[in-house]
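Worked example

This section walks through a single chain of length 243. The input is the sequence exactly as stored; nothing has been trimmed or padded.
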Amino acid sequence: MAPRKVSGAPMMTAGKLPPLLFNPIDRRCYLALPATHIRFAMETAHCFAIKNWNAFLSGTLYPDSRWLTGVDRTATHNDLCLSYAFTGTDFRTGWHLHCLCDHIQKEVLYKRWPALTRLNRHEGWVHLAVAKMIQDRADMSHIDMAPYLSALDHVETPNGENRRDVESYFRHIRSIYYGLYEPGIDDYRKLWLGVGLEDHLLSELLSLADRQMVDAAYMADLQGVYDDMVSIFRRHHRPQVAP
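Given that input, the structure is written out below as tokens.
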């Protein structure tokens, strides 16, 4: 389950990260999806001294359990979570990387499609959610989710959530992703329905996704988003190495 080993990898010390290009306390739900989160977390985990991989991976997906627990997004996605100083435990390190993944991904998508910044809140959410859904599908082809989903037996409730609600969210993620290698639109329909997305939003989201997935120019533009995300992390958000 551990990521690739880096020979002689140094221990990391807390360091102040440079500011993101966008406000880290964005009240809108511009979220990456589970496969992207897992891939990003495992790609960057070698920068941290992870000991409990189950706790780390559980923390990586924990913040979006708010869809079922009802916890306000500002409690799970905020500027404190984006600071390396927030980490402290393996669970919180996964949580930290979840929030970085969300905001770096949004940063990359806005750079690729500047017109997104001119959309109203509703239109912006739909277009970004579709891009992230299609990216999640692509990220699935690079990882086998099954070994990582077993980590979701580890459950923490740092915001006083009902433990059963967090467990329900993790079961839902398992039910969609376990054994899945090339998710289709119907799989994402089940994903969104399971977290309570309203029917009218779901219909709009999936209709746009159908159109975008056959748009060769759009799909070409979406390629490389993940690599750009990792590059930004390495250049600007990697923990400082101890001298």
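What to look for: DSSP finds twelve helices and no strands in the chain.
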